[in-house]
Amino acid sequence: MRGRQFGELIVRSTDGLLRSVTDLLLFQTYLVTALIGKHTKYEMDQGITEAQQLLEEINYTTIKSACYRLMRAGLIVKTKTPTALEIAITDLGKRRIDALFPAYHEKRPWDGHMYLISYDIPTKASSIRDLLRRHIHRAGAALLQESLWVTPYNPQKLLLDFSKHHHNPGTILVSKLGKDGAIGAEDLTDLLVRIYHLKDINERYHEFIQTYKNTRPQSLLPISLAYLSILKDDPQLPFALEPENFLGKQAYVCYRRLFHLS
């Protein structure tokens, strides 16, 4: 399989989790670096061998170009002492990983309120409106209906910062509801399951657990991609709002066991 075809296959198979060969290379490097001191020598060698095999699958010119872009951006640096990959993650690179890949939050403070976000932005400012939608989504909100979002996490600071930096020409309204505040005919639990697609996410968590719970990892990359592709869709609601038997925590425990990252 040619390098370009391989890279495109990875992007398709991970639902956009890895958007370029550059991100794929950075992620694989992060995995190998994260294992240092936490696995046996055999396991570490296995991880390095796997990384090398992955890189050999991609066209050399593609890798060279990806490495150059990463180093130019300050995301990776060459080490003075050669290693199997000759690349070390810099602090900036680690921050990029944190932004690129989701992290499981074991602590989720909640003030007991739900928040409704609505906005009215002129059509001529469509770019600002689209940017606002992305900001609202980052706040952990889900679309309830056109221009109306709901979230359990207070979005006011994020929205204030947005308006300050983007000169919002319209109006943004935030309404605070109690935990039992009515939003239509559904109760809150059913509403959250629907708008956050929690049933589908839970089924994916269940499949992940069943696939890997009794295995010893032979391949680092596929397991990480399988888990993170689910986690990126998990809104990570306050634990008090998650439906009964939601498997997010169990999947996280399974993932940590596989990689000894506790």
Describe the structure.
The chain is α+β, with helices and mostly antiparallel strands. It folds into 3 domains: 3-100, Arc Repressor Mutant, subunit A, CATH 1.10.10; 113-178, Alpha-Beta Plaits (2-Layer Sandwich), CATH 3.30.70.240; 197-259, no CATH class. The protein contains 11 helices and 6 strands. The protein has helices at 3-13, 21-34, 41-57, 60-72, 91-100, 126-138, 156-166, 188-195, 198-212, 220-231, 248-259, and strands at residues 76-77, 88-89, 113-120, 142-145, 148-151, 171-178. The chain has a 4-stranded antiparallel beta sheet with strand order 4-5-3-6, with no helix packed on it. Strands 1-2 form a two-stranded antiparallel ribbon. The radius of gyration is 21 Å and the shape is globular. The two termini are 36 Å apart. The model is unreliable at 84-90 (pLDDT under 50).
CATH topology of the largest domain: Arc Repressor Mutant, subunit A
CATH C-level category of the largest domain: Mainly Alpha
Task: Assign a percent range to the helix content.
Answer: 40-55%
Rg on CA atoms, Å: 21 Å
Write down the domain tally: 3
How much strand? 5-15%
CATH architecture of the largest domain: Orthogonal Bundle
Biggest sheet statistics: 4 strands, antiparallel
Poorly predicted regions are 84-90
Instruction: Please list the strands of the largest sheet in the order they lie side by side.
Output: 4-5-3-6
Number-wise, the strands total 6
Backbone structural class: alpha+beta
Distance between the termini: 36 Å
Q: Quote the average pLDDT.
A: 75
